[in-house]
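The material for today's practical consists of a large collection of protein records. Read left to right, the backbone structure tokens trace the chain's path through space. An example says more than a description, so a record of this kind follows:
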Amino acid sequence: MDLRERINAAVKEAMKAHESERLGTLRLINAAIKDRDIAARGEGGDSPVSDTVLVELLGKMVRQRQESARMFLEGGRAELADKERAEIRVIEEYLPRQLDEAEIAAAIDAAIAETGAASIRDIGKVMAQLKARFAGQMDFGAAGALLRARLA
């Protein structure tokens, strides 16, 4: 079952179970997917976007909500931050398992060895390989910092 089918099945289940908060988040996901499909059609693509693109989209949605939750907490609005965190939990159900720090370090070491990276100028090559292999499974901001430290 592809990602779209899983999300649509979850929408139906949430409707039957009267889970309004979960249903709202799932509908937000579906709306974002449809927006992405429309944007892809405008770029000349006829078929719906791939699961890889959808995983990137979901990752972006999680990052947006993490930032919103952080800002709500800074503003003293804990109830809104909790709502954002609840949405994050629902979205993360459809993302691949995130790598932990040790797995990220091992992946970086392997990518450095495979690309033959020796200096800070080779970051682009290594990051391209990591993104191709671990899309949706790794925080590339944190990985970039770790990669810089390794190549410095």
Q: What stands out?
A: The chain has a mean pLDDT of 89. Residues 3-92 form a domain with the Hypothetical Protein Yqey; Chain: A; domain1 fold (CATH 1.10.1510.10). DSSP finds seven helices and no strands in the chain. The two ends are 43 Å apart (CA to CA).
